[in-house]
């Protein structure tokens, strides 16, 4: 219930609806929760809409009605292939106009003229001018791609983006009637004898060789998005500075070809840089990203100074040209962050287009070139890892992970202007685990500004992540439909859902994935509107099922035959302890130690014990475990359980394959737990290097189960 003194007026509700702001939502326990007027005004303010008074609300409503008529063309039109769509063109009433399509060069290029439809709409007076509307029909046989609409007439010269997307993203032939399984790994945590204190892209290539050798078809890794270029580096791969570019901490310096041509003195500099951090590869303590990056940056600066041959320089030039202004802007931000600190860049330098930034660009030219080069060498090592995975028998290879959002003081916020919102952050409403709600501190996409940008920032981000991917996992895929916005200064429970054009966002995702030849998996866990899963299925986007979260109406593990087919099914997820730890109640013990429990410890432990007992009963009833099973037997049985489902993809956490018990992440904590810093170890706490995995008996045994 909303306090009557803060209940929204009908006009405020209409204004909120016009901007995609939901006036209410269903709570975790099934109750309808209405947003307050304060919340709606705060969210609208973040959208750039002044709703501070009844007069301002009325004015804003009139702008909503007039805005389409002020444009000759809508900024972007996204349509599914084979479907009819009509495009409005606004001109001075009575003026003639023509409309045509310039086809995407990747689709063959050319021009297609559009036919005007007999669909009369009464003219409208806008800003003292009588504006008429002509309606044109887009042909249903246009090829997939990023096309351009062009309008021409006495009072109408305009261009707009036209995106034709697949009706459905079809699964690759290798998945037609066949199931595939793969490993899931946190790359930074998996080191080798040659790592620099953190797992890297050469380790990824080696892991691909291992995975392919034991019959896996994919390797799902954590997001590799770029973090801050200076200490302290944010540990969470889900809070990057940008989602478009790669964190160069994953580059192996010696694997850069120019490293082979170092003079002896320079080679010594690289070796000296490596010494302090290579010793950390066998350190069981938390992974030290700052130390690893400081060492790598020093070494990479030495390698960067080596002259490149003609072919290598041509390759770098081609990469820079392909990535365009976005790469240069990111490299410039990285240089500024080095100089001033990523969160303390002066206010005078917060506009990338300013004269002050242009002057800094000249001063920092060498550092900009260095950060540009880092992206190139990272891209090369990523390409090598994917190539190695495929050559070693994996059908999909690397499955990349796309985070929900970015750091509020990161490169994307600096570079993308109004496309990212400044006055609100993304989070989640209260639920049984977080009774006050969650604020993830990430600025959301601005729905209207993203559309006005023709969805190009979204497209460019997807293209980078998909460059060397056989599949992509979309974290919190519901965010392409709606996001919980928390207005600046409000509590996490004082937010509202803002809706996005899911037809456009999912369609563009399908288009870019199809062009890359990649499978798409949406992480659709938690509270998801029922129709969303059906919609994703019709568009060819796979869902996600986690054994611990799938229950029938009585609270028992969902029968295997009742699982969805078009999903990635797993036993666990990175937000839970590995299965051995979960079975031992580690998820309760951690929260008890950190003071995170909201109920008495005995009650929580009893619930955890009952959950485990129900799982063991289900396994026993299917003959998957003996009367007194070992931990390893239970873990393998749980994987046999999901093998009995119709799921087309099965994911196996590498932590489960070696018996690790410690969680990588404990939701609800920041400094209290070493989130995203836990190196891979076995059931006894002994570190496990990639070199050890090739002969790991427990891993081989579980792989045999998956291959049976």
Largest sheet: 8 strands, parallel
If you compute it from the alpha carbons, what radius of gyration comes out, rounded to the nearest whole angstrom? 27 Å
Distance between the termini: 55 Å
Low-confidence regions: none
The tally of strands reads 23
| Helix amount | 25-40%
Helix tally? Answer: 21
Q: Tell me, rounded to a whole number, the average pLDDT.
A: 95
Overall geometry: globular
Assess the beta-strand content as a share of residues.
Answer: 15-25%
Q: What class would the helix/strand composition place it in?
A: alpha/beta
Strand line-up across the major sheet: 20-17-14-13-12-23-22-21
Oligomer: single chain
Write the topology of this structure.
Layout: H1 10-18, E1 24-26, E2 32-34, H2 37-46, H3 54-70, E3 76-80, E4 85-92, E5 98-102, E6 111-113, E7 115-117, E8 124-126, E9 129-138, E10 145-153, E11 156-165, E12 180-185, H4 201-213, E13 218-221, H5 264-278, H6 289-304, H7 310-340, H8 355-363, H9 365-391, E14 397-402, H10 411-415, E15 424-428, E16 438-442, H11 447-452, H12 456-466, E17 471-474, E18 482-487, E19 496-499, H13 502-516, E20 519-522, H14 530-538, E21 543-546, E22 567-570, H15 579-583, H16 586-593, H17 601-621, H18 631-643, E23 649-653, H19 654-658, H20 690-693, H21 697-707
Parallel strand pairs: 3-11, 12-13, 12-23, 13-14, 14-17, 17-20, 21-22, 22-23
Antiparallel strand pairs: 1-2, 4-9, 5-6, 5-10, 7-9, 8-9, 10-11, 15-16, 15-18, 18-19
Helix pairs in contact: 1-3, 4-9, 5-6, 7-9, 12-13, 18-21
């Amino acid at each position: 219930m909303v306090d009557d003194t803060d209940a929204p007026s009908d006009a405020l509700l209409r204004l909120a609806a016009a901007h995609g702001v939901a006036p209410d939502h269903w709570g975790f326990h099934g109750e309808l929760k209405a947003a307050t007027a304060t919340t709606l005004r705060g969210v609208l303010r973040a959208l750039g809409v002044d709703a501070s008074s009844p007069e301002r609300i009325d004015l804003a409503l009139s702008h909503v009605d007039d805005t389409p008529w002020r444009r000759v063309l809508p900024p972007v039109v996204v349509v599914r292939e084979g479907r009819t769509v009509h495009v409005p063109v606004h001109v001075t009433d009575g003026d003639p106009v023509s409309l045509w399509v310039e086809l995407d060069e990747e689709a063959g290029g050319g021009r297609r003229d559009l036919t005007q439809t007999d669909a009369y709409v009464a003219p409208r007076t806008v800003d003292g001018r009588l504006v008429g509307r002509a309606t044109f029909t887009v042909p249903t046989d246009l090829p997939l791609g990023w096309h351009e609409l062009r309008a021409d007439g006495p009072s109408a010269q305009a261009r707009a983006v036209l995106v034709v997307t697949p009706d459905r993203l079809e699964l690759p032939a290798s998945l037609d009637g066949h199931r595939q399984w793969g490993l899931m790994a946190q790359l930074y945590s998996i080191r080798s004898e040659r790592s620099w204190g953190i797992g890297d892209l050469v380790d990824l290539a080696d892991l691909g060789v291992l995975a392919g050798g034991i019959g896996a078809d994919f390797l799902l890794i954590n997001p590799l998005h770029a973090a801050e270029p200076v200490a302290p580096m944010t540990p969470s791969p889900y809070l990057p500075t940008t989602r478009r570019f790669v964190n160069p901490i994953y580059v192996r310096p010696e694997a850069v070809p120019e490293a082979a041509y170092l003079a002896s003195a320079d080679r010594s500099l690289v070796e000296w840089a490596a010494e302090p951090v290579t010793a950390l590869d066998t350190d069981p303590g938390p992974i030290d990203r700052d130390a690893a990056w400081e060492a790598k940056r020093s070494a990479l600066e030495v390698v960067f100074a080596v002259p490149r041959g003609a072919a290598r320089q041509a390759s770098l030039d081609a990469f820079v040209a392909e990535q365009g202004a976005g790469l240069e802007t990111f490299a410039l931000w990285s240089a500024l962050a080095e100089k001033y600190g990523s969160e303390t860049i002066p206010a005078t330098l917060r506009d990338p287009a300013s004269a002050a930034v242009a002057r800094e660009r000249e001063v920092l030219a060498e550092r900009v070139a260095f950060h540009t080069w880092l992206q190139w060498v990272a891209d090369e090592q990523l390409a090598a890892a994917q190539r190695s995975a495929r050559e070693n028998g994996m059908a999909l290879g690397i499955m990349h992970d796309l985070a929900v959002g970015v750091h509020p003081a990161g490169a994307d916020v600096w570079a993308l202007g109004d496309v990212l919102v400044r006055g609100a952050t993304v989070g989640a409403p209260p639920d049984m685990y977080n009774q006050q709600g969650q604020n993830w501190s990430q600025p959301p996409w601005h729905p209207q500004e993203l559309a006005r940008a023709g969805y190009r920032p979204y497209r460019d981000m997807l293209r980078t992540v998909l460059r060397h991917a056989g599949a992509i996992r979309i974290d919190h895929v519901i965010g392409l439909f709606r996001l919980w916005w928390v207005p600046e200064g409000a509590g996490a429970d004082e937010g509202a859902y803002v809706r996005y054009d899911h037809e456009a966002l999912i369609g563009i995702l399908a288009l870019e994935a199809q062009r890359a030849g990649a499978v798409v998996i949406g992480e659709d866990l938690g509270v998801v509107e029922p129709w969303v899963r059906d919609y994703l299925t019709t568009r060819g986007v796979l869902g996600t099922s986690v054994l611990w979260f799938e229950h029938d109406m009585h609270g028992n593990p969902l029968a295997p035959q009742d699982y969805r087919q078009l999903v990635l099914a797993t036993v666990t997820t990175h937000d839970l302890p590995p299965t051995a730890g979960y079975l031992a109640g580690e998820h309760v013990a951690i929260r008890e130690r950190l003071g995170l429990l909201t109920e008495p410890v005995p009650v929580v432990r009893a619930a955890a014990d009952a959950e485990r007992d129900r799982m063991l009963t289900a396994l026993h009833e299917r003959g998957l475990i003996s009367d007194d099973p070992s931990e390893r037997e239970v873990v393998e049985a749980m994987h046999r359980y999901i093998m009995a489902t119709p799921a087309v993809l099965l994911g196996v956490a590498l932590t489960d394959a070696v018996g690790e018990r410690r969680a990588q992440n404990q939701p609800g904590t920041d400094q209290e737990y070493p989130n995203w810093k836990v190196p891979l170890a076995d059931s006894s706490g002994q570190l496990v290097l990639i070199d050890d995995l090739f002969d790991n008996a427990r891993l081989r045994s579980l792989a045999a189960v998956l291959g049976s």
